[in-house]
């Protein structure tokens, strides 16, 4: 109240971002008012650029400005291992671990009976598997209901092919104590125990 409508409109837009509440949106709007005009135009241009130039990679659906993304075209990646994830942001998380050097496939969603999604369009994935370059698949969908359903669906679809199928291990978090772990996670960790 008491501020121009265009200022409230900006707050309205900013508060639509995930994790940004009303108060943070207000703080961002006040900050934008104090920014240099050059900085504001650059911010606006960058927002437009990601929409305009980023498209799904033709091979893996990862974000890319080229037809084929930098991961798929990298000569340094192992070409016979494929990690299947739900969203491009999962690639970012896995890349941060530096523990994986294969390729990816992004499903762009998961099977979600509550949202009425009973099937996934995985034609591109199956064609890639059928081309016989992939020897190993790691299903890295989320360890929640939809992610598990999606994993089961993928296992069923991939099993006719000559490819080893793995599900990412659901472990107990590092630096924690057994007594504080929720029983679903602890139960899964026990089921997925490995020989030492
Ligand atoms: Zn790619």
Strand order of the largest sheet: 4-3-5-6
Count of alpha and pi helical runs: 7
Strand content: 5-15%
Integer average pLDDT: 92
List keywords for this structure.
single chain; 11% strand; binds zinc ion; 41% helix; 2 domains; 196 residues
Task: Describe what this molecule looks like in 3D.
With 196 residues, this protein is of the alpha/beta class. It folds into two domains: 5-53, RecR Domain 1 (Helicase, Ruva Protein, domain 3); 74-191, Dna Topoisomerase Vi A Subunit, Chain: A, domain 2. The protein is built from seven helices and six strands. The protein has helices at 5-14, 22-34, 37-53, 88-97, 123-130, 145-158, 183-191; strands spanning 55-56, 63-64, 81-85, 103-106, 136-139, 164-167. Strands 4-3-5-6 form a four-stranded parallel beta sheet. Strands 1-2 form a two-stranded antiparallel sheet. Helix 1 (5-14) crosses helix 2 (22-34). The radius of gyration is 21 Å and the shape is globular. The termini are far apart. Zinc ion binds next to loops. Zinc ion (ZN) is lined by residues 57, 59-60, 62, 68-69, 71-72.
């Amino acid at each position: 109240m008491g501020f121009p409508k265009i200022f409230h409109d900006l707050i309205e837009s900013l508060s639509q971002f995930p994790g940004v509440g009303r108060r943070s949106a207000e703080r961002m709007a006040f900050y934008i008012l104090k920014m240099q005009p050059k900085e504001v135009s650059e911010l606006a241009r960058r927002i437009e650029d990601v929409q305009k130039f980023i498209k799904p990679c033709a091979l893996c659906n990862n974000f890319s400005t080229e037809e084929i993304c930098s991961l798929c075209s990298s000569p340094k990646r192992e070409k016979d291992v494929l990690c299947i994830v739900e969203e491009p942001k999962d690639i970012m998380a896995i890349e941060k671990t530096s523990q994986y050097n294969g390729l990816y496939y992004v499903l762009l969603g998961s099977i979600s009976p509550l949202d009425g999604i009973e099937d996934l369009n995985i034609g591109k994935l199956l064609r890639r598997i059928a081309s016989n370059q992939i020897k190993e698949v790691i299903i890295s969908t989320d360890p929640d209901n939809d992610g598990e359903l999606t994993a089961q669906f993928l296992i069923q679809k991939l099993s006719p092919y000559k490819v080893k199928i793995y599900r990412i291990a659901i472990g107990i978090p590092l630096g924690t104590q057994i007594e504080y772990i929720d029983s679903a996670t602890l139960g899964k960790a026990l089921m997925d125990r490995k020989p030492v």
